[in-house]
Amino acid sequence: ETGVTQTPRHLVMGMTNKKSLKCEQHLGHNAMYWYKQSAKKPLELMFVYSLEERVENNSVPSRFSPECPNSSHLFLHLHTLQPEDSALYLCASSQDIASGDYEQYFGPGTRLTVT
Amino acid sequence: QKEVEQDPGPLSVPEGAIVSLNCTYSNSAFQYFMWYRQYSRKGPELLMYTYSSGNKEDGRFTAQVDKSSKYISLFIRDSQPSDSATYLCAMSGDGSGNTGKLIFGQGTTLQVKP
């Protein structure tokens, strides 16, 4: 595997389900990010992790819970989601927080549909 | 007012045309300016970034930043059907320290017709 991988690529879940999105980066980077991409809206930064420590929570509802067990893996735990949470969820990584200002590498995303 | 404005298009051009993609922004403190390309059902791919004002060229792609006008551009020369994608501008470095926070435009969808 190379670059940034995300699983699953597609997910359909009911509003009462609990699911998790997984991201893995194979680049030896120390910073990781979660973004939300909704139709006709700009990418929205959700969370930033640097060396497994959360450094940014961009006013994201508590039904989204991130976890970064090590610098290569990032999870997004989902529970009690709403239909408006349906979107493409993208993971990204950068060498460190400083280079994250200009050089982030994205995974292919997980297409989430909440029914 | 959005921090970054980008016309969503779609923009349709014939193969071989010169394409001009643009973004305007409101925060004069931004220091880094990036262009990403996103193919359908894929994640964004970094094309190039520029620090502060000026031009940067990479093959058929040229990025320009005019900080006085708060306007950035991406030019694609000799456009190819394989350039058909959504192009996202992004900005960062607003003086609050290194945060990795990128502010994106909505993206412009480009179609290059053979």
Total strand count of chain A, please?
11
Measured by DSSP, the beta-strand proportion of chain A falls in: over 45%
Total number of helical segments of chain B?
Answer: 0
Helix and strand succession of chain B?
Answer: EEEEEEEEEEE
**Low-pLDDT residue intervals, each spanning 5 or more residues of chain A:** none
Stretches with pLDDT under 50, minimum 5 residues of chain B = none
**Helix coverage percent of chain A:** under 10%
Find the structural class of chain A using helix and strand composition.
Answer: mainly beta
Q: State the end-to-end CA separation of chain B.
A: 37 Å
Strand content of chain B: over 45%
Give the biggest sheet of chain B: 6 strands, mixed
Main β sheet profile of chain A: 7 strands, mixed
Query: Helix count of chain A, per DSSP?
Result: 0
Rounded to the nearest angstrom, the distance between the terminal CA atoms of chain A is 32 Å
Largest interface: A-B, 28 and 30 residues
